[in-house]
Design goal:
Layout (H helix, E strand, L loop, with lengths): L11 H13 L6 H14 L3 E5 L2 H11 L7 E5 L4 H9 L3 E5 L10 H7 L4 E7 L8 H10 L3 E5 L7 E2 L2 E2 L6 E5 L12 E5 L2 H11 L7 H5 L19 H12 L1 H19 L6 E2 L7 E2 L6 E4 L8 H10 L15 H6 L8 H7 L2 E3 L8 H18 L3
Parallel strand pairs: 2-3, 2-4, 4-5, 5-8
Antiparallel strand pairs: 1-9, 6-7, 6-11, 8-9, 10-12, 12-13
This protein binds pyridoxal-5'-phosphate.
Length: 384
């Protein structure tokens, strides 16, 4: 059997929604984008939203709209996708990396505390794999130090902290609709917030800072417009929004499948937790289940993480690593100065983590096959 790390399956709902956009005669930013924004606002319990061309664009514009730039520092996790950090540099600010909680893999509150300076303007928290960060502590810390709290919620659509949906907690939250994400628009992102002013600023910047959009002009508005700022071209198209609207029509089914897959992995692997740690979950939050990340208990095994992944590959199973810490990348090593000792949890976790195949098209026999392969490897490589 072959089980790829990821496989995308789009269905009739998506085909029909995209076909409707094509038939409408308007494919770039217009009514579908507006509908998509309204639907995500509802899901995330946020007042305002702006759709953009990617999660990365959303993070960048969030920082821009908050006027974060030269001379400012932004604290974020060393354990994230590079997008979270590169946008800070693109704004001219300095990324300051914090260590993680080795259990949840989310940014560590105490590590942030040590990194706050007079120059710190914001914290970007990342809900790794879809498990919400410790927002009670983060919100207090942001308030006490007069910092913006931004949630890189690329993994976390559908998650909840307590009974609050992700998107309703931080000052700004940014979703990604990349194909591997829980809902996809092909490429796409969205910034949500309860601040009308900030969302309007992002919307303005996302389309050349023009005072009127193409949709407004072509649907009966005046041809006149002004350009009132230095803008960007980061808008989302109606075609992309149409695809996401198709996905959203069956979002409960999609999310339930993720919950079931996670439960089956947990049940199947429950008897080998001496050798592998399963993803953290408790009753305080609701997991969005974007990724299923296990951690090897290396002290009990005669195999490294890389060897383990290679063995899985030999059995036709694709695995991933989320994430290679930022300080390990050659560009970031050169351009930022790190003290590796600051990231001991991150470094230890990196050497243990394996992301298992986890997507709505994954069948139960495939999942069981993955678990059987893990168990065989544990049996073969466990220290006696
Ligand atoms: C944690 C995190 N932040 C941001 C992004 C960027 O999202 P996008 O690919 O939509 O730009 C990703 C994408 O995988 C991500 O995993």
């Amino acid at each position: 059997m072959k089980v790829p790390f990821f496989r995308l399956k789009l269905g009739a709902a998506e085909k029909s929604a995209v076909s409707d956009v094509i038939k409408s005669g308007w494919v770039t930013t217009g009514p579908r984008v507006k509908e998509f924004e309204q639907k995500i606002c509802k899901l995330a319990d946020a007042k305002y939203a702006v759709a953009v061309s990617s999660g990365t664009a959303g993070l960048f514009l969030a920082l821009k709209a908050l006027s974060i730039g030269k001379g400012d520092e932004v604290i974020t996790s060393a354990y994230t996708m590079v997008a979270t950090v590169e946008v800070i540099l693109h704004c001219g600010a300095k990324p300051v990396l914090a260590d993680i909680d080795p259990v949840t893999l989310n940014i560590d509150f105490n590590s942030i505390k040590e990194k706050i300076t007079k120059k710190t303007k914001a914290i970007i928290a990342v809900d790794i794999a879809g498990w919400p960060c410790d927002y009670k502590s983060l919100k207090k810390m942001a308030k006490d130090n007069n910092l913006y709290l931004i949630d890189d919620a690329a993994h976390a659509l559908g998650g909840k902290y307590g009974n609050k949906p992700i998107g309703s907690i931080a000052d700004l939250s940014v979703f990604s609709f990349y194909p591997t994400k829980n809902i996809t628009s092909g490429e796409g992102g969205m910034v949500v917030s309860n601040s009308k002013k900030t969302i309007e600023k992002i919307k303005h910047l996302s389309l050349h800072a023009m005072s009127s959009s193409g949709w407004k002009r072509y649907s009966g508005g005046s041809w006149r417009y002004d350009v009132t700022d230095l803008g960007y071209k980061f808008n989302l198209s109606d075609l992309s929004a149409g695809l996401a609207l198709g996905q959203l029509k069956r979002s409960d089914t999609l999310q339930n499948k993720r919950i079931k897959l996670a439960a089956r992995y947990r049940k199947n692997l429950n008897d080998i937790t001496e050798y592998i740690e399963l993803p953290f979950e408790d009753k305080t939050s609701t997991h969005a289940w974007h990724l299923f990340i296990i951690k090897l208990n290396l002290s009990k095994l005669k195999i490294t993480r890389n060897q383990f992944i290679a063995e899985m590959e030999k059995r036709g199973i694709g695995c991933g690593v989320h994430f290679i810490p930022i300080y390990r990348f050659s560009y970031y090593k050169k351009s930022l100065k790190f003290n590796i000792k600051d990231f001991s949890n991150c470094e230890k976790s990196f050497k243990r983590v394996i992301s298992l195949p986890f997507y709505i098209d994954l069948s139960y026999p495939e999942l069981d096959y993955v678990c059987e392969a893990i168990k065989k490897l544990i049996k073969k490589y466990k220290k006696i």
